[in-house]
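Long-time lurker, first post. I've been practising inverse folding by hand and with some scripts of my own, and I keep getting stuck on stretches where the structure tokens seem ambiguous. Below is the full token string for one chain I'm working on. Before anyone asks, I'm not after the true native sequence, just a reasonable design that respects the backbone. If someone could post their per-position residues I'd love to compare against what I wrote down in my notebook.
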């Protein structure tokens, strides 16, 4: 059950990232199909590069993915029924986490929702241009999550702290 919980946790998080990337990819393809002016191409390239670095490398590869993998290892080592059933939520840090991590996760979720609402109001091609950058970051994030999980479980050692408080009974 522990191994199944870990697979459910990591695969569930990865599935959300892939779903979001595919959804955003549709908007990016619409913008490209309609044709872009030189300025729009420039913004697309700069945005994609910035998002690859900021969201993909700094956000996912250095922070989010190693933490999800560390929490998946904590789930494997200290499984509970609630953790196993809600493994993706546990791995992200919505519960059974330090107060600091929970605040970060909930604040990040709120900011993502606000960004989605704001992006939905943009007309093409700008929505597609911005979505293309986010899609690049999400794809990088998915790959880094798979890599971090593999590396963590191969060595049975987390790359970062799992931020599971000692008294977390869930």
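-- Answer (accepted) --
I ran through it position by position. Result:
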């Amino acid at each position: 059950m522990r191994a199944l919980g870990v697979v459910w946790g990591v695969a569930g998080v990865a599935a959300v990232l892939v779903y979001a990337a595919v959804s955003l990819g549709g908007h990016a393809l619409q913008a490209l199909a309609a044709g872009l002016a030189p300025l729009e191409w420039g913004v697309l390239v700069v945005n994609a590069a910035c998002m690859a670095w900021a969201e993909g490398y700094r956000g996912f590869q250095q922070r989010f993915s190693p933490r999800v993998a560390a929490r998946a290892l904590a789930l494997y080592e200290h499984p509970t029924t609630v953790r196993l059933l809600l493994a993706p939520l546990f791995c992200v840090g919505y519960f059974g986490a330090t107060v600091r991590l929970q605040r970060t996760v909930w604040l990040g979720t709120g900011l993502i929702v606000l960004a989605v609402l704001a992006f939905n109001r943009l007309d093409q091609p700008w929505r597609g241009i911005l979505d293309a950058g986010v899609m690049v970051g999400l794809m990088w994030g998915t790959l880094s999550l798979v890599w971090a999980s593999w590396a963590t479980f191969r060595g049975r050692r987390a790359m970062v702290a799992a931020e599971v408080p000692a008294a977390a009974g869930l």
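A couple of notes from the structure itself: Residues 2-155 form one domain. The helical segments are 2-34, 38-77, 81-85, 87-92, 99-120, 126-155. Happy to go over any region you disagree with.
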